[in-house]
Amino acid sequence: MFSHIAKLIWNRKRSNVLIITEIVITFIVLFAIISATLHNYRLFNLPLGFNWENTWAIELNTGSRWNNETDKNQLKAIVEVLKQRPEIASVGLIRMGVFVNAHWRSSRPINGRESIYHSNMVDQDALKNWGVELVAGRWFGEQDNGQSYTEIVVNQLFVDEYLPDQDPVNFEFGDPEQPQILPMRIVGVFKDFRQQGEFSVPGPYMFTRYQIEEGHTYGVREINIKFKEPKTAAYEATLLKLLKSIAPNWEFNINSWEKRREQQIQNVVLPLGLAAVVVIFLLIMVAMGLFGVLWQNISRRTQEIGLRRAIGASERSIRLQIIGEILVLALFGISIAFIFLIQVPLLQLIELVSWSNFWFSLLASVSTILLIVILCALYPSRTAIKMSPAVALHYE
Amino acid sequence: MFKNYLVTAWKVLQRRKFFTFISLFGITITLTVLMILSTVLDNFLNPSGPSKNSDHLLFVDRIKVTSKDGNSNWTSQPGFRFLKDNVLKLKMPEKFSIFTVIEESASYLNGDKVTNHLRLTDSTYWEVLDFNFIEGHPFNKQELESGKKVAVINETTRRNFFGDANAVGKSIEINSQKYQVVGVVRDVSFMEIQAYSDIWLPYTTSSSTSYRSNLIDNWNAILYHSNSNMIKSMQAEYIAMLKNDFVTPDPEEFHKVEGGADTLLDIFAREFTSSYGYDSGAASLISILIGLTISFMLLPSINLINLNISRIMERSSEIGVRKAFGASTTQLVIQFVTENIIITAIGGILGLLLSGLILFQIEQSGLVPGADFRYSWHTFIYGSGLIFLFGLLSGAYPAFKMSKLHPVAALKGGSN
């Protein structure tokens, strides 16, 4: 049966090459959109590591270079005033805010191996207040003041990646190129903190402790306040007035985490959605095209089918032949596309296509293509069956 | 003869309506997508708002700074200091304007938060760009130099703050400071990245003066010349300045600056090809865009080729007769390609209508602030180009196959 179909296809190779090419391209396009959607969907469902409800970010623009004396006092005054407000549950300082696409990559050797991670800076209570889960050790605190190390907390992925067989708590590592800088000591491990939001790829992450007192040349960029209950825009106006009264020379921009998150989701979903709409239209177009081609081909092969019917082929075997032919064509096209696509995870061309993602997307695309192809062949195969042998042989 | 082709094409279209529908569906969808993209690009490159005289303008919008040891380099918008020290000393441009990129600022009205875009500009900004004032006038040089707190706002902002009433002379609170409105302009499309904003203020009203010392920051410059033929020489002068007498207060960190005084095409090319050096990559942009267009057309073309080939049989007797009466292969190929281009053109017109509808929906949705997508004569050139390209891609091979039919076989009803 199969070899017979293969021979039939070979005899009509010219026109079949075009159909196969069409299937190859459709398959690759379909695979691309499915794997991109799947990748983002999976990321979206991973735990974020913190709570974003009822929290606002006050972005600071301190204008000129950070002046240790005046700016430090000003920041301290703001934090103090905010902390005393009854409606505010907590006040946290962070260098790079959440749901923002800014990040800071650092690297340093650990046990002789270069480690690469994202680094950020918060004050000592912020992570706890945002609901970040501590896995081992403790958060940094007053007891770390004036020690001979820089206190840091890292996420579980950092430990898994760079300290897999070791107790991470109290592990110290310095920078061999700059021995004058204090070594870093891991005082605690937290579950995760996906600062760049739900669509970011989880990776090793580290926090150093920010203290207003120490007067870093690079200041924090955000004050984040968590409210006991939701607040309105009217409150935002009073808050801004309050801030301006303390620091008239600074500019403030207030944004809720929720709003930033929505914006970020929109930035990913909108282009993906548009691409999906275009791909769906392409699929409809290809399906209708295939249907037309098959239909036309069947009506052209009247004699052949009539002859088969005359010598006693059953309806079922005619239908099997028609559907079988197009299935073999489709599978052939899919195999060619597969040879191209398998290179992506093999050579790690695009980071986001992991193996599990690859197989799932492959399966989904194969079933979609086969379904389309079979649907396209159903109606033409019925016309073929309905043909009376006598009429078919009289054709011309 | 061409009239004959038209008539035949029309008859073929009517012969099997379902097949015609399939062909037109594919053509329309493909051309709709491409026409939307090209219209958006055209609106960026040939603006119809305040920067409509963009062929007289050059923009300094990005600089790439390299340190002396070559270890660090970064690309950013230039700062005030860089523009003052280096760009404003150029000889050729007749006018300069420096201004910031837009920033968000919040205002609170009756308990609601209104987010406005804010831009700090100088006074020549209003001369090099052609804003449409519906009320009042721009701020002038004197007001700029004295740091007077005056503002130009757009129509939407006027509606938000003052309803339908006139705004000139009234005051408006921005960043907790009071500004007096001196002018109201028509809304500007977000696509005009140098002109778009909701509120424009003199840069001297900024609450700190630290911007004056920054080499990289968030500033832009426009260079203007009344003769658009001078644009090329102005670009050359800018690059010569960067190479030969670039003034830097920090020769260690800001050792070398690359970039260009860009046309809108250059700006798009830089972003699209990430080329931030002296060359904007505009030359390679066109071939990249054509390549992308063809690859997008590939699948629809093959689909149409398949359909066309399988429809050859419909025409076999016609081809047989024509061949028997001595029509040459070339004549037949030309005829069939023409027919295909005619079908594509019908799909193209449908695509134009559809893309107009979709762009209108995008305008209404407010996704792009102030968007006002227009078809210009460029659209028709791009559109015709796309139709011709697509018609040729999908029509050439089937036409060749058709013309190869043997006359006897064709008259008998054809073979494979």
From TrEMBL, chain A:
GO terms for molecular function: transmembrane transporter activity. The chain crosses the membrane at residues 17-38, 268-295, 326-346, 358-379. Its main location: membrane. It is a multi-pass membrane protein. It is found in: Cell membrane. Residues 277-389 form the ABC3 transporter permease C-terminal domain. This is FtsX-like permease family protein. It comes from Aliikangiella coralliicola.
TrEMBL record, chain B:
PANTHER family: ABC-TYPE MACROLIDE FAMILY EXPORT SYSTEM PERMEASE COMPONENT 2, MEMBRANE COMPONENT OF TRANSPORTER-RELATED. This is FtsX-like permease family protein. The keyword Transmembrane applies. Residues 293-407 form the ABC3 transporter permease C-terminal domain. The chain crosses the membrane at residues 21-41, 282-305, 341-360, 380-400. Its main location: membrane. The keyword Repeat does not apply. It is a multi-pass membrane protein.
